[in-house]
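Why do we bother with a discrete structure alphabet at all? Because it lets us treat a fold like text: something you can write down, compare, and reason about line by line. To make this less abstract, here is a complete entry for Chemotaxis protein CheA. Read it the way you would read a sentence in a foreign language you are learning: slowly, and without expecting to understand everything at once.
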Amino acid sequence: MNKHDRVMQIFLNECKEILEEIAPKLLNLEDTPNDKNLINDIFRGIHTLKGNANSFGFVKLGEFVHHFEDLLSIYRKDESVLDSSEVDLFIRSFDIVGSVFEYEEDGVDGYPTNYYEILEEIKKALNIKENSKESFEEIVSASSFAHVAQESVIVKKMVEHTQYNLKDIGDKKIYEIKLELDSDIYLRGYNHQIFFRLLESLGTLLYSNYIIDENIPTLEEFNTEHSYVKSLYIYLLSDSDEMDILDVFEFIAQEHEVSLSVVDLKELETLQEKESKEEESQSQETLYVQNGSKEHKSVAKSSIRVESAKLDELFDSIGELVIAQSYISQNEKIRSINDNELNQYLEMLSKSTRIIQSKVMSLRMIPIRDTFLKMKRVVRDVSVKTSKEIELILSGEDTEIDKTMVDKLSEPLIHLLRNSVDHGIEESAHDRVALGKEECGNIYLSAAHKGSSFVIEIRDDGRGIDTQKILQKAIEKGFAKEGASYTQDEIINFLFCAGFSTANSITDISGRGVGLDAVRQSIEELRGKVTVESELGVGTIFRIILPLTLAIIDGLTIRVDNEMLIVPTLSVVESFSPIIKDIHYVKGEGEFINYRGEILPIVRLNRLLGLNKSKTEFENSTFICIDHERGRYIIQVDELLGRQQVVIKSLGVLSNNVKEISGAAILGTGQIALILNTEGVRDHLDFEYSA
């Protein structure tokens, strides 16, 4: 990646972050339209976006955002409360901003649909406001004084210089960069922070300073779109040539004076000596305060950007390390060596491998919050189209999941939430009141860790699923046979058939019969599952059940007949030898055991997996209690072989029709073991048990 690409990637990432931050704030504005702080926050984000777009030559984006910023600027000074149509215009304008950004990012010519229509609405709103109040030029204000203070803090942080040993600089040069800035730099969309970020990609920032206009007005007269920084001095240690450094200021060179020179190292040595003497002359009390300040800085949180591809490479390497460590720990030749010191080193290796694996795993785990917040917009838009009053209630937003899964969950969640709004919630508030419910429909979106699974629930308090209507539609479409007997779960499962729909007409929301089928396919690609619970007149729960990670797990190695299997340890409650008198057979239902006061079903893995089906005795077997969010159950195995970390390897299409297996792993002995899918095993039990 060359310098231009790196700089462009920084810009694109920052724009995406700004858009993600603004989106939920606009939705909150619907609930609190008189919140001026919220409008100010949105304005500042749009203002920064405009500056970035102008700096990097994204003309279409800068043009539209400029008009949107003008509109927001007026409303920031307007004392009246926003009405729903005005908030709606903000939201639709923001949609265009997002679309234009995607066009610019992908290099697509032209403009998004409704671009000019929304732009005309903005101009119309601007004219109305300008005619009813003072002129736009008189009320323009970039941000609150606090925002300017914040930028000042950022500049001051850059001013703190790094002490370098000049003898170690080598062939690098120290450049002095001087910028003469005029007062309207902010109005043209430029920002001091951009210069620092770009220069950091070329070398090390040693020192910076700035000269402020002597005639700074009082707080009441302070104009936050006016720059009071007259000159900016930056000292950069770099091996880049002068042209590369001047390229950073390409976009402002025409309006501002930029000069570049190489620093005389003797002068810098004198500067360092002077500062060193000043530090030595400070009192002990001052030194104590400084030390306390440094200690405080040492615990401050910081972050860096890492390309996802590099993170994936690191994760793959950790997977290979786990396999190698497993080989070493289970190698018979090594285990046969009677050497305490060697055993200690092997234990240290195992412990260190687990720590490294855990740390790297945590790098890929991120909260589901951002994805959940995006769903608020989905529910809002569909509820407006269907003329339904609906509230989306979130919980468990901070629950963490593998980032590779988060990126693939948006579409399934959108389908399920649209389904809940369109099909789940009653058609009118009158219908809900007649059923003794609140006028406003409620949809609950939650996330939680349960055992070895990550579970997302979409629950509504609507009308529930009419299984008789589903069955009738299934018969009409040939999915079910007339006169045949079906359980409620079997009837509900027809909803996931390709092309199945209960809608009487096709709309832009539903009726095409592709929603739930696509949801199930997407979730199964993540080795997960979708379940449905519903009660007519009460509501429906769609439950997405996923593994916590797609890469490395702690596993309990077991033997069933002659096959090696891995059971995820997060699903294991305990293993034990059964007491035969506690085992009971219930005709037509199966085998059960009294486990610590609970009556739990027993699953014979040898029969389930088609191994030695003739084996019937429980003697000399080991039972493992499996924890599951739908209820615990017992699996029968022949032998426990130990616990180890394994790297999950996909079986591809081979495992599509074997729901009891979620993948494979290479054991330390070199053998291949299948990974048991505890969710798929649970599906073979026809009953629900409380955990």
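What the structure line is telling us, in plain words: The chain has five domains: 3-141, 146-290, 308-366, 368-547, 552-682. Residues 3-31 form the longest helix (29 residues).
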